[in-house]
Amino acid sequence: MENTEPKVDAYIAKSPAYAQPIITHLRKLIHQVTPQVTEVMKWGHPHFDYKGPFMGLAAFKEHLGLNFWKSTLMDDPAGLFAAAEKGSAGSIGKIRSMADLPADDVLITYMLNAIDLNEKGIKLPPPKKTEEPKELEMPTDLIEAFKSNTGTLQHFEKFSPSAKKEYISWLDEAKSEATRQKRLDTMMEWVAEGKTRHWKYKK
């Protein structure tokens, strides 16, 4: 094998006895599929790069993890990813012995798929940003109105965030203080009855 990394040799030597033949076999298979592979150590475990990372191995006390970096873009004809535990994206499950490994031809198919994605420069989509919901700010006059109407406040707190926002936006859109006060009075009346801002239009 060419392009081997001595640190990977050391990693194999220090791995649990069950994991050593598994890692050695997978390593040879990867080099067989793509002799141009580069071995690197990332986060303390062996990874294999070809125009970018495509596979990683991690030997734990009782099982070995085998991960494909771009599993979400790969085909899964043998159902390896589907069979893995929930939350272990890219993993083909816990491998405890050579018998747990998929057949070589299956592994080669997956390796070629992963390498092909890198060859074509196909990248993983950026992770979706999950924005935390902003806390709804109540205007001062509404807070004061609720202080003397705690029962109404209890009704208001049961509304959904969107229903609360509709009322507050309605107040803030008032063009004059007189209009705002009138809307506030109406709001307090409706909320006390458990009605949302657009209750008239709901069947």
TrEMBL record:
UniProt-listed Pfam families: DUF1801 (PF08818), OmdA (PF13376)
Location of the YdhG-like domain: 20-114
InterPro entries with a match to the protein in the record: YdhG-like (IPR014922)
Listed name of the protein: YdeI/OmpD-associated family protein
Biological source species: Mucilaginibacter mali
Lineage: Bacteria, Pseudomonadati, Bacteroidota, Sphingobacteriia, Sphingobacteriales
